[in-house]
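Data follows
____________
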Amino acid sequence: MTIRSERDQHVVTLTIDREAKLNALDYPTIDALLAELDRIDADDTVRAVILTGAGQRAFSAGADIPSLAASVAGGPERALREFVRRGHTLTRRIEEFPKPVIVAVNGLAYGGGCEVTEAAPLAVAAEHATFAKPEISLGFPPPFGGSQRLPRHVGRKRGLELILTGDPVPAARAAELGLVNSVVPAAELLDAARDLADRIIRHAPTAVAACLRAVTRGINLPIDEGLAVEAAAFAATVPTEGVRDGLRRFLDRTADAR
């Protein structure tokens, strides 16, 4: 298996396990990762996901080039079917996942590895991590959603600089751009990702899912449409145990303080 899954209480850590290939995303690996996400989605006892790569050199070097070359050799329709649609399915699944996905970037995140980081709602990077959009050197634009998500996250001009040059940027610069939430020493990476997960899952799962849904669906909409998404997410939580418990705790604390 090219995806390792380890569970610690309510958090599952998924590891892309192709260290000798810099954790490149070949088709079986993408399919296995999608299958793991489906399994986690169906398990209500899992509250958060940490996604990382094996070893210290790479989170993921991106798409597996031999797989890509074989698809390209079959023409545009085959390349779209086997490569682009598979990549879009993966990044959209991560972006829209109803539980928080925290990418722990343990080395280089190039191409598809960078696009997975862009799609994830949260990311923590090791100090030695680097990020790059090298697809232009192969003659094509980012194909796993990166031409759309990156400029939305970091701004058009900064996004285009990365996309058009293909130059790598260090973790500190990625944090300045907003591509990752924080940068930590490599030895502390998984602990930092777990700490972030724990600070999220202390809250009601229905509230976490509603927040993820409201932000993900509303972020690129006009404000009026976004507010409608927010209102729908709020309404969905009203009858939940999470709201009942949260309000009761607040009211109890208020009464005790009097």
Q: What stands out?
A: The domain at 3-201 is CATH 3.90.226.10 (2-enoyl-CoA Hydratase; Chain A, domain 1).
